């Protein structure tokens, strides 16, 4: 019977670079790279660190992710329960499955279940839509030529800080504070008390729901309107399991062309460009350039696929890695399509729409 300590030791023996490679992303020799949970463009914001030679720790300085390597594997593999994460790690390491111990153990704090999370985010959106259009968020989207598409993709905005206690109070009429904290809506202080005067990440007021193919909200991404870092955040431990815009594939044929872009707002930008130019394809957003999941290959089977990532070195390298995988899963045609103006499709849209 393999013990938990043996798994930690085996992960440490792999080292950060090999560990990351087996999970489908990259880090440098120091264990630094882009966060595979929320994406981003900073190659130094995510860290894999070996502590005392015994355990590998995971931390993202942008989205606040913090855990050990075993919890991290469970999150990435969509198996956060204790037996599931052990099986996922054993599979990653090529070890035999681990029998679940029948001895009593101290349970870990429970993650929010997917349906409850969807209900909380849906309620949050309904509350926020009761406020008058929030000028600074609308102006931000208008500058990026995205305001017209925002309702179609169910984007919404949090009110300014002064009104955020009202939002929390509305939510508390239906949900327990522990549920709101598990969803990343409010913050638990070090003292154990909950912060009720403002929402967590209170300046990140543009809200972008990532959904499942059925339309159930899997993760709420939020963006600040200025240049402060981090620009984008997900709640700790909550990550999208599908590309942004996946629910729109219900409306098209199974062989309808698709394009993969970086991030949700580039989905809106490329959608706008396609409609202007008469291109019949559905853009889908990856959480980050290095966050491809093997299960997403099924989306591509029998389809014409455009890899339309950012016009930079990372985007070019990602195409070189993705193209063979897309061939293997049966994509009918694969195209490399880069933004024609600037780095991303937002830059291109500003150019063609001006």
Explain this structure to me?
The structure is a single chain. By secondary structure, the protein is an alpha+beta fold. It folds into three domains: 4-93; 114-233, DNA primase, catalytic core, N-terminal domain (DNA primase DNAg catalytic core, N-terminal domain, Alpha-Beta Complex), CATH 3.90.980.10; 246-352, Dna Topoisomerase Vi A Subunit, Chain: A, domain 2, CATH 3.40.1360. It has twelve helices and 14 strands. It has helices spanning 4-14, 16-23, 69-76, 82-93, 114-128, 135-143, 164-172, 177-182, 264-277, 297-300, 313-329, 345-352, and strands at 32-33, 46-51, 55-60, 66-68, 156-157, 187-188, 194-195, 206-211, 217-223, 232-233, 258-262, 282-286, 304-307, 333-336. The strands form four sheets. The chain has a four-stranded antiparallel sheet with strand order 1-2-3-4. The protein has a four-stranded antiparallel sheet with strand order 5-8-9-10, with helices on one face. A hairpin with a 3-residue loop joins strand 2 and strand 3 (55-60). Helix 3 crosses helix 4. It is globular and about 55 Å long. The protein starts with a helix and ends with a helix.
Structural shape: globular
Percent range for helical residues?
Answer: 25-40%
CATH class of the largest domain: Alpha Beta
Structural class: alpha+beta
CATH T-level fold name of the largest domain: DNA primase DNAg catalytic core, N-terminal domain
Work out the helix count: 12
The largest sheet, given as strand count, sense and whether it forms a barrel, is:
4 strands, antiparallel
Please state the CA-atom Rg, rounded to the nearest Å: 21 Å
């Amino acid at each position: 019977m393999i013990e938990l300590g043996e798994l930690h030791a085996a992960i440490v023996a792999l080292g950060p670079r090999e560990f990351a490679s087996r999970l489908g992303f990259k880090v440098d020799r120091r264990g630094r790279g882009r966060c595979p949970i929320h994406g981003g463009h900073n190659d130094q914001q995510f860290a894999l660190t070996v502590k005392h030679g015994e355990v590998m720790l995971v931390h993202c300085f942008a989205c606040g992710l913090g855990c050990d390597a075993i919890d991290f594997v469970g999150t990435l593999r969509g198996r956060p329960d204790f037996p599931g994460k052990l099986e996922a790690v054993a599979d990653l390491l090529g070890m035999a499955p681990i029998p679940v111990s029948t001895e009593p153990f101290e349970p870990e704090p429970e993650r929010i279940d997917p349906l409850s999370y969807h209900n909380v985010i849906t309620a949050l959106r309904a509350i926020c839509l009761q406020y008058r259009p929030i000028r600074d968020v609308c102006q931000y989207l208008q500058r990026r030529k995205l305001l017209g598409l925002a309702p179609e993709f169910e984007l919404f905005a949090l009110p300014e800080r002064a009104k955020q206690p009202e939002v929390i109070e509305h939510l508390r009429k239906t949900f327990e504070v522990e549920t709101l904290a598990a969803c990343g809506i409010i913050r638990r202080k070090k003292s154990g008390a909950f912060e009720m005067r403002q929402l967590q990440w209170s300046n990140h007021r543009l809200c972008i729901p990532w959904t499942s193919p059925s339309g159930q909200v899997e993760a709420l991404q939020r963006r600040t309107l200025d240049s402060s870092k981090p620009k984008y955040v997900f709640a700790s431990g909550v990550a999208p399991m599908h590309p942004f815009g996946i629910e729109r594939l219900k409306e098209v044929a199974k062989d309808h062309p698709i394009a993969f872009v970086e991030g949700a707002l580039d989905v809106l930008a490329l959608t706008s460009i396609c409609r202007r130019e008469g291109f019949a394809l559905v853009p889908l957003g990856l959480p980050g350039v290095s966050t491809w999941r093997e299960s997403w290959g099924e989306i591509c089977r029998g389809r014409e696929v455009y890899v339309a990532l950012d016009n930079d070195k990372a985007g070019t390298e990602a195409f070189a890695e993705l193209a063979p995988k897309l061939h293997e899963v049966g994509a009918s045609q694969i195209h490399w399509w880069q933004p024609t103006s600037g780095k991303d499709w937002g830059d291109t849209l500003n150019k063609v729409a001006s």
